[in-house]
Amino acid sequence: MKLETKEDFRQWMDKVLSPLKPLYSEGGARLHLGDSGVTYPQVSIEMEAFSRPLWALVPFWAGGGEDQEFEAIYRKGLTSGTDRDHKEYWGGFTDYDQRFVEMAAIASGIIFAPEKVWEPLTEKARGNLAGWLYGINEHIIPDCNWQFFMILVNTALKKRGYRYSEEKLKSGLEKVESYYLGDGWYRDGGSAQKDYYISFAMHYYGLLYAKAMEEEEPERCRRFKERAERFARDFIYWFDENGGALPYGRSLAYRFGEAAFWSAYVFAGLEEIPAAVVKGILVRHLAWWDSQKIYDRDGVLTIGYAYPNLIMAERYNAPGSPYWGMKSLLCLALPDDHQFWSLKAAPMPKLEEVKCLKQADMIVHRHGKDVTAYPAGVCEKYGHGHVPEKYSKFAYSTRFGFSVARSQIVLHENAPDSALAFVIDGDDYVFVRKVSLSYEVKEDRVISTWQPFPGITVTSTVIPEAEGHLRIHEIESSFDCTAYDCGFSVEKFTAGYEQKAEGSRAAVQYDHMGCMVSGSGPEAKGMVIEADPNTNVLYPNGSIPAVSYRIEKGKKAHLETRVQTFVK
Question: What is the pTM of this model?
Answer without folding.
Answer: 0.96
